[in-house]
Amino acid sequence: MKIRLGYVAMTLNLEKCSPSGTVTVANFKKLPDEEARMYRLRKITRENLSNTLRILRYNKALNISVYRFTSKLIPLATHPLIEHWDYREDFKEEFSEIGKFVKENDFRVSAHPDHYTLINSHSDKVLEESIKDLDYHVKIYEAMGLEDYRYKLVLHVGGLYKDKKTSIERFKENFVKLPDRIRKRIILENDDKSYTAADVLEICKELKIPMVIDIHHHRCVNHGESLLSLLPEVFDTWKGEYFKPKIHFSSPKSEKDFRSHADFIDIGEFAGFLEIAGAIGRDFDVMLEAKSKDSALLQLSNELKNVKGIRSINESEFELERKEGRKEAYAAREREEGTQESTDSSTWL
User: Fold this and answer.
1) In angstroms, rounded to a whole number, what is the distance separating the alpha carbons of residues 322 and 51?
2) Does 125 map to a domain?
3) Cα 264 from Cα 60, distance rounded (Å)
4) Count of CB atoms situated within 10 Å of the CB of 130
5) How far apart are CA 229 and CA 234, in angstroms?
């Protein structure tokens, strides 16, 4: 079985290469006139798009083909102050060049709208703004010519609003009403407080949505479900999709600040997870959500080369040795010890 590693948005190894330059509403309003405001917006957008292409070229050089776009490519994109601006037309060539590069190299690109994008909100205003944000992300894909639904948007289920069951039903009701161009791009992820991997899996199975299981979040909140039992069903939600299943992985910053992401990936934790995933025997991609971005990926890549049973193909791709009987051995251990999860990584091994 093979895995590929990817990272989120920013590279730490290219100078002056942020794809997320922005301007605050307050500073934008302080600019003397419309001409100055539009000059500032276009300047920042041009730099963001140029840096995005630089990052993609850098990724190609390092054989990294799994990457998440920043949600901040266009400053103030959904703010009423700039709703008259057709940024897609202004930067038609730049968007097209990025999309062409993605398609030529068969990159797996995605985006993750911010936490305030809540399609299960009971507020009509919040729902309206959430759909507006999703529409913005899809417009970016469309401007790049990435109109195939293989290019996804990662979402959480949303808030609990003091009633999980009702909130889940509201998510389902609002989800099916979304336009196809948005709905068919959405994939769901479990969060670290409210909706467990098991909760999200049931929603995904019912609505036929691919699921991204976040391993760190699963460690933060679960009801004793084991990864061994969850992973096969999670991976099955990707049947019929162009890309293989994808998971999110990060290490906790500390025991005290367990939910926060660490700068790098703990090799022991990751190798422990791969032991379990290896029992499933399915190819998948890994989005690393470490604070040190590509540096964390490259460090993990070097460390994996020294792990028994793992063969390095290139900087981001690895082959795991499939051991017969491993799944049965884990299942037997679960029957003996129970399936209660723990934040102690030794329970994975």
Assistant:
1) 39
2) no
3) 22
4) 22
5) 9
pTM over 0.90: yes
Total domains in the chain come to: 1
Q: Is 68 left (phi over 0), alpha (psi -120 to 50) or beta?
A: beta
Q: How confident is the model at residue 321 (pLDDT cuts 50, 70, 90)?
A: confident
At 136 the three-state DSSP class reads helix
> Rounded distance, CA 206 to CA 217, Å?
22
In a domain, 79, yes or no: no
> Residue 80 falls within a domain, yes or no?
no
SS (H, E, C) 171-231: HHHHHHHCCHHHHCCEEEECCCCCCCHHHHHHHHHHHCCCEEEEHHHHHHCCCCCCHHHHH
Q: How far apart are CA 264 and CA 298, in angstroms?
A: 10
CA distance 312 to 196: 33
Q: Which residues, in sequence order, are CB contacts of 50 under 8 Å at separation 6+? A: 94
In this structure, are residues 94 and 50 in contact, taking their beta carbons and an 8 Å threshold? yes
Query: Is residue 324 situated within a structural domain?
Result: yes
Nearest to 8 by CA among 62, 70, 71: 70
**How distant, in Å, are the alpha carbons of 182, 269, 270, 339 from that of 225?**
31, 18, 19, 6
**133: enclosing H helix or E strand:** helix 124-143
The parent domain of residue 261 ranges over 213-349
Of the listed ranges 37-41, 138-142, 225-229, 328-332, the one predicted with least confidence: 328-332
**What tokens does 326 get?**
């491993």
First to last CA, the chain: 19
